[in-house]
Each structure stands twice: as C-alpha cells, then as structure tokens.
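Notebook p. 47: complex prediction with heme C.
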Amino acid sequence: MSRFQFPRWSNLLLPVVILVGATLPVYAAFFVSYGFSPKTLEVGYQPTQPIPFSHALHAGELGLDCRYCHIGVDRAAHSSIPVTQTCMNCHANIRPESPKLVKLIDSNLTGMPIEWIRIHRLPDFAFFNHAAHVTRGIGCATCHGRIDKMEVVYQHAPLSMGWCLECHREPITNLRPPSEVTNMRLNPELDIGIDAQTKLRAKYQIAPSENCTTCHR
Ligand code: HEC
Ligand code: HEC
Ligand code: HEC
Ligand code: HEC
Ligand code: HEC
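Predicted complex, structure tokens below:
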C-alpha cells in the first residue's frame, strides 16, 4: 500500500484523480455540505444555545465526568448529547424555579427535546469515529480544547483533513493512557513524556491509517 503525503501536491494529484473517477458522489456531497453549512469547519464557531448550560460549571467546578452526559463516546462513532432526564437527575431539585432553566422544565413536562445547536460537524463524506480515538488514548482536550473552562462551547480545532493527517502521521506526543481521556488538566506532551508514550504506542499497537478509505468510505 503506497503512502500519500499531504500537502505535497505532486503526491496529491494522483489519488485525487483516482478518487474523482471512483467516487463522484463524494464531490457532490462535498459541495452540498459546504453550500448548506459553511460554518462547520470554523475554529471558534460558538452558537448561542437554547439554555445557558455551562461546561465550566458542570464539568469544571462540579467535576462531572464527560461520560456522565456524553454516553457512548468510548463505544460508538458518535458521542451523544444528554437527554432532558439526565439534567433532571439534579435539576428536579436544584434550582428548578431558575429563569435559566425554564426551557429545561418545559421540555421535561412536554417531552419535547431541547434543540441544542450542533457545533462540530464534518462534511458528510468524511467519516470520524470517537471510540477509535478514545480507546487508544487520544483525550477529549486534544481535539476539543479545555471544555472544562468554557462557559459556552466553541470549536477549538480546525477539523480539516490536514489537521487529521498531521496526527495520523505522528500521533505519539498526543498519547495518554486511555483511562485518562477525560482528564482535562493533563497535557500529554509535558506530563507523560516520550518514553511512556513510546510504551503506550507499542502496548496498544497504535498505527493510524493515512489511506483515503479510512476517512472517505
Ligand atoms: C452535565 C452534562 C454534561 C457534562 C458533564 C459534559 N457535557 Fe458536553 N455537552 C452537554 C450539553 C447539554 C451540550 C450541548 C450544549 C452545549 O454545546 O453546551 C454539550 C456539548 C458538548 C460539545 C459540543 C458538541 C457539538 O455540538 O459539537 C462538546 C465537544 C462537549 N460537550 C464535550 C464535553 C467534554 C469534553 C466534557 C468533559 C470535560 C463534557 N462535554 C461534559 C452536556 C454535558
Ligand atoms: C450532577 C448534578 C447536575 C446535573 C446532572 C446538571 N446540573 Fe445544572 N447545575 C447543577 C448545580 C449544582 C448548579 C449550580 C446551582 C446554583 O448555582 O445554585 C447548576 C446550574 C445550572 C444552571 C444555572 C442555573 C442558574 O440559575 O444559575 C443551568 C442553566 C443548568 N445547570 C443547566 C443544566 C442542564 C441543561 C443540564 C443537563 C445537560 C444540567 N444542568 C445538568 C447541577 C447539575
Ligand atoms: C481525535 C479528535 C477527537 C477526540 C479525541 C474527541 N472528539 Fe469529539 N468530535 C471530534 C470531531 C471531528 C467531531 C465531529 C464529528 C462529526 O461531525 O462526525 C466531534 C464531535 C463531538 C460531539 C458532537 C456529537 C458528535 O459525535 O458528532 C461531542 C458531544 C463530542 N465530540 C464530545 C467528545 C468527548 C466527550 C470526547 C472525549 C471523551 C471527545 N469528543 C473526543 C473530534 C474528537
Ligand atoms: C491527535 C491525534 C488524532 C487526530 C487529531 C485524529 N486522529 Fe484519527 N486516529 C488517531 C489514532 C491514535 C487512531 C487509532 C489508530 C490505531 O488504533 O492504530 C485513529 C483512528 C482513526 C480512525 C479509525 C480507523 C480504523 O481503523 O477504524 C478513523 C476513521 C480516524 N482516526 C479518522 C480521523 C479523522 C476524520 C480525523 C479528523 C477529523 C482524525 N481521525 C483526527 C489519532 C488522531
Ligand atoms: C484521517 C482522515 C482522512 C484521510 C486519511 C483522508 N482524508 Fe480527505 N478529508 C478528511 C476530512 C475530515 C475532510 C473534510 C475537511 C476538509 O475539507 O479539510 C476531507 C476532505 C477531503 C477532500 C475535499 C477537499 C478538501 O481538501 O477540502 C478531498 C478531495 C479529500 N479529502 C481527498 C482525500 C484523499 C484523496 C485521501 C487519500 C490520499 C484522503 N482524502 C485521506 C479526512 C481524511
């Protein structure tokens, strides 16, 4: 299997020609998705959510683990957004009368889900899988930044192909023990170090693929 290096255009040309021939629909999807949602690859994209939910409070101060709300992030391609009942576990008793929680209490009464606005979204022709990263020791903070400090979540990384490939080519300095993936304070490069990371790489046989079909299928 040949290896393609980005962004060397001489190497890019051949695979792109192959891809165009083989998968025209990919291109259609590309233009459609860009046409309809140009904001999705924007670093800093920070829509106003229907409820002023703060990660800085819940994940930071209160110290809730990400997986309490984002169930499945270590088992599935997509990470779930919590249902109203998850919030009601606490807010049935904690400040149910707060003006900031009116929409939550309504949602609980009517059964209509809260319409959270999606922040991170790749074009449909690009495939991503959370579990493949989280179980190999790539932490949430590496891709999403210090969510535990965000009052309102914004997109931290470009999520572009170049960004994906940069790590797929050389993941080592991003590795941490899989048990630490939701630890927001840990900085793998500084706190783990290259020796331990080399061992982690060997232990989990980490060799991310650069083949087009890994992310375009
Ligand atoms: C108490 C529940 C809760 C906890 C705990 C929590 N989150 Fe969230 N998360 C939410 C809700 C609700 C949203 C949607 C609203 C928003 O964007 O703030 C969300 C949105 C997100 C998004 C943006 C999703 C998108 O639309 O693209 C990311 C990324 C995220 N959370 C990461 C984390 C990480 C990392 C942690 C742990 C440090 C964490 N969350 C802890 C409830 C939670
Ligand atoms: C583990 C318990 C817990 C869970 C689960 C939880 N919260 Fe909270 N939440 C709190 C606490 C504690 C406060 C702080 C209350 C205070 O300031 O007195 C709070 C505060 C808030 C506030 C600010 C209220 C105000 O009047 O300032 C909002 C809004 C909020 N939470 C929304 C949510 C949403 C939406 C969810 C579900 C995605 C959620 N919370 C899940 C415990 C929780
Ligand atoms: C290797 C980078 C990477 C890591 C690590 C990562 N994410 Fe994501 N996350 C993404 C990308 C890319 C998307 C957009 C996925 C898409 O559009 O298909 C995303 C989307 C999300 C979403 C929106 C729902 C979805 O799945 O599309 C949530 C919530 C989220 N991430 C939470 C987390 C949490 C919590 C962790 C840690 C347990 C985490 N992520 C780890 C890259 C990452
Ligand atoms: C910070 C490092 C990092 C970033 C950023 C990253 N990846 Fe990965 N990716 C990995 C590692 C490590 C693995 C696991 C490799 C293994 O198990 O050998 C992986 C695995 C995958 C897999 C699973 C392949 C399989 O065999 O099932 C897919 C798909 C994938 N990545 C897509 C993406 C996409 C798309 C992006 C960008 C949106 C991205 N990755 C960004 C490090 C990263
Ligand atoms: C690790 C994941 C990954 C791999 C491997 C990968 N891509 Fe991508 N690719 C993406 C993501 C994510 C996007 C969407 C974001 C963007 O446009 O940068 C994308 C976008 C594209 C686009 C749209 C144009 C552009 O640059 O925005 C083309 C064409 C493309 N890829 C071709 C390829 C070819 C050909 C290969 C193999 C040589 C390949 N990709 C390998 C993740 C990947």
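Notes: Residues 4, 15-16, 19, 30, 41, 122-123, 126, 160-161, 164-165, 168, 210-212, 214-216 surround heme C (ligand 5) (CB under 6 Å). Confidence is low (pLDDT under 50) at residues 1-11, 24-40.
Next step: compare against the earlier run before touching the bench.
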